[in-house]
Amino acid sequence: MKNLENKAFAISNSLGTVWSLVLHTIFFIAVLISPFFGVNSEKAMLLLTTIVSLEAIYLAIFIQMTVNKNTASIEKVEHDIDEIQEDVEEIQEDIDEIQEDVEEIQEDVEEIQEEEQEENKI
Questions:
Q1: Are 44 and 64 in contact (CB under 8 A)?
Q2: CB neighbours of 44 closer than 8 A, spacing ≥ 6?
Q3: Helix and strand totals (H; E) in the chain
């Protein structure tokens, strides 16, 4: 099943190229001018209409598959972002705690300095 999906995505990717545009244009021109070379114009138009209709159906399927794949990818990224946000919040809490510890140490250092100054005055 995965192999089939990979082939479908490969086809979808190839359809979105300049070469695909060139090949389609050549095909449409060939079908449209074929009546000038003896091909029945009704049969040529029937063939063209059938091919274009089938192609439109398959393109719609390929587009939906791509949308589904991208949606799944976006959902995964959103989940990763949520986890990163939680990690950032935890880090911020840790930083706040460290800041409080630093302030307490600073207060202790100031008290020790004051005590030393008082002892030196005596």
A1: no
A2: 31, 32, 34, 35
A3: 3, 0
Which pair of tokens denotes residue 53? Answer: 């209709």
CA 111, CA 113: separation in Å to the nearest integer? Answer: 5
Let me know: does 87 contact 36? Beta carbons within 8 Å. Answer: no
pLDDT in tens, 58-97: 888 888 888 888 888 898 888 889 899 999 999 999 999 9
The C-alpha atoms of residue 58 and residue 15 are separated, in whole angstroms, by 11
pLDDT > 70: percent of the chain: 99
Judge whether residue 29 has pLDDT over 80.
yes
Whole-angstrom Cα distance, residue 75 to residue 70?
A: 9
Count Cβ atoms below 10 Å from residue 11 Cβ, excluding itself: 13
pLDDT bucket at 122, cuts 50 / 70 / 90: low
Contact 11, 62 (CB under 8 A): yes
